[in-house]
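TA notes, week 10

Several of you asked for a full example with nothing omitted. So below is the full record: structure tokens for the whole chain, then the designed sequence directly under it. When grading your own attempts, check the secondary structure regions first.
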């Protein structure tokens, strides 16, 4: 009997596949948390014009004063992708109270978040799996890790921006990142 040793070459790679996550609302929750923080960091009062929607600032703000206590106002128009997705926020404030760089940054960030009420909500799921190549044949494992993340600072992120955001959050301990989204 003749025995022969067979030598084969295998290469293992970690692949990350990123896709839209329509069942997760991390971007919205993140936005609400940011608005909560910003609205309570500075002294403002907010009213809305479209009462078909909840006043997100009023829901999050712990008011210590009334509208009449403010001298200045700014109107923020938020528009979505359909005609019914709109809101006009009237943000009342006292300019002399928003003087430090931190207060100004909070105020500006709050205006930006309110303007983006209906947009900039991109949730993604990243699934990691191993790919093993043995003598030219490719075998893929089932996903063993699922990470959720959002991008709320870009309205329509490109595949490269999505991949870069994932890498900035979770690191680059993978061979290849595949982005398959409907953006």
């Amino acid at each position: 009997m003749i025995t022969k040793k067979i030598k084969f070459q295998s290469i293992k790679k970690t692949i990350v596949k990123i896709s839209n996550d329509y069942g997760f609302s991390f971007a919205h929750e993140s936005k609400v948390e940011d608005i909560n923080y910003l609205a309570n960091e500075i002294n403002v009062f907010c009213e809305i014009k479209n009462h078909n929607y909840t006043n997100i600032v009023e829901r999050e703000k712990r008011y210590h004063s009334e509208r009449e206590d403010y001298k200045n106002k700014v109107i923020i128009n938020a528009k979505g992708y359909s005609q019914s997705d709109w809101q006009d926020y009237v943000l009342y404030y006292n300019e002399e109270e928003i003087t430090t760089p931190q207060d100004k940054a909070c105020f500006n960030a709050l205006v930006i978040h309110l303007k983006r009420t209906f947009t900039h909500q991109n949730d993604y799921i990243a699934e990691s799996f191993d790919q093993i190549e043995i003598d030219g044949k490719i075998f893929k494992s089932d996903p063993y890790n699922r990470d959720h993340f959002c991008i709320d600072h870009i309205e329509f992120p490109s595949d490269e921006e999505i991949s870069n955001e994932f890498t900035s959050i979770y690191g680059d301990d993978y061979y290849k990142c595949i982005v398959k989204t409907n953006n």
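The chain has four helices and eight strands. Use that as a sanity check on your answer.
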